[in-house]
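pinging the channel bc i need a second pair of eyes. not urgent but kinda urgent?? the chain im working w is below, pasted from the shared doc
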Amino acid sequence: MRLTTRFFVSTVLLVTVTVGGLLIAVERLLRERLVAGETAELEHEARLVAVALPPDSARWPDAARMLGELLGRRVTLIDPTGRVRGDTEFGRDALSRLENHAGRPEVRDALSTGSGAAQRLSASTNAPQLYVAVRGGPPGLAVVRVSATLAAIDAHVHAVQRAVAGAGLLAVIAAAVLAWGLSRSLARPLLELGNAARAIAQGREPSFPDVRIPEIADHATALRGMHDELESRFAELRRRQEETATLVASLTDGLIATDARGDIVTCNPAARRLLRLPAGGSLPPLSELFHDKAAREIVRDLMAGRVVESRELALGGRALLVTGRTLPDGGTLLVLRDISDLRRLEAVRRDFVANVSHELKTPLTSIVGYAETLAAEATAGSEAGRFAETILANARRMQRLVDDLLDLSRIESGGWHPAPAVVDVAAAARDAFAPFADRAAAGGVAFEATVPSEAAHVVADPEGLREIFTNLFDNALRHTARGGRLRVSAERVDGGIAVAV
């Protein structure tokens, strides 16, 4: 049901119910007032009759008929036993056939309180009657009752009801006309506001009504302000979206984003270039984009909600570094970085380091040999001997650096394969410290290996462990002051053994 119809029907119903309630209230109040007045008048007349009755009971029937005709009422005379001793409507001979009136409500009330009144249908006329009885009269008489028909009161009430009903009908018609006009004036701007709101929701330019009703005008102003604010925010969102699209398109790294179903929603030019995909063409779901086993495994991990951190992937002759994670909306984000040039440069560096190290190893061996010969033949404490010792120490240091470079080159190229074995930590530390013993003694540095029995042995590559100890001891002696202590300790931690220098 439309607003206009609802308002119109509600108003008409409200006025109709109000008029109906007014009719009922008028009928009840007016009838009560009229009946109360008639009751008082009948009671007054009954008391007059009680005073005017002759003391001779034989004359009571005639007196009742005469006084009733005089007053225009029905007069009934009742003795203490409830027997009717006189009645305007019945002759002397018929009085004995009338039923006993002691049980009538108005008679009971009159006998107990002095007066009583009751309304009921007349047995003779079947019309509503008002009966008023008072206690009194000459000796031998108990109650004088006077009654009158309520037809006049009903006629008066009905006349007033007709007048009120006519006025109420006019009020309903006037209210209907006013309600229709008011509902139209209220509904039109509300409907126009609804159309404007729908236009905003559909992205069309809205048309706002010119409203003169203050309460609705406030809503129109608020809706117009909301539209302006939305337009401003949409413009800002479009600007940011364009900036983001430009940024994504200019990235050198490939970027692929999917929705919660796995359909690709964003794929920048760099990703299309790295994956050799056609520019601007439609793309299959992410699960069907790759055919390489390693790449499909990465996609499965992503679709399962796992984070992919810097996995290297060989794809189409390129080395790609892949990072991926799940987005808050259930989609996924995949970043592809081309590290082919980096891997080529690393290979060149490894080859260069290996070649240079091999080239340096032979002359360093010769320098060490000559320096040892010079140091052995030099006179103790001579300047030539000191020079030879300095040359020998630095040459050996260079040899260690070259050996380290060669080891690093073998590790990076995959040419180094550890051979794990059970190694005594303390023994390995002492063996590695042996070449540094003279240097430590000259610097006043003491050596100590404190290894508990539960951490005495480890499974490791012996040569690799020796190299680690050698590097650590060399650094430790370089940074330990005279009188210091170089200490090796070990303890069991999380299923392994931690060694500290």
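so Residues 251-338 form a domain with the Beta-Lactamase fold (CATH 3.30.450.20). and The radius of gyration is 61 Å. — does that match what u expected or am i reading it wrong
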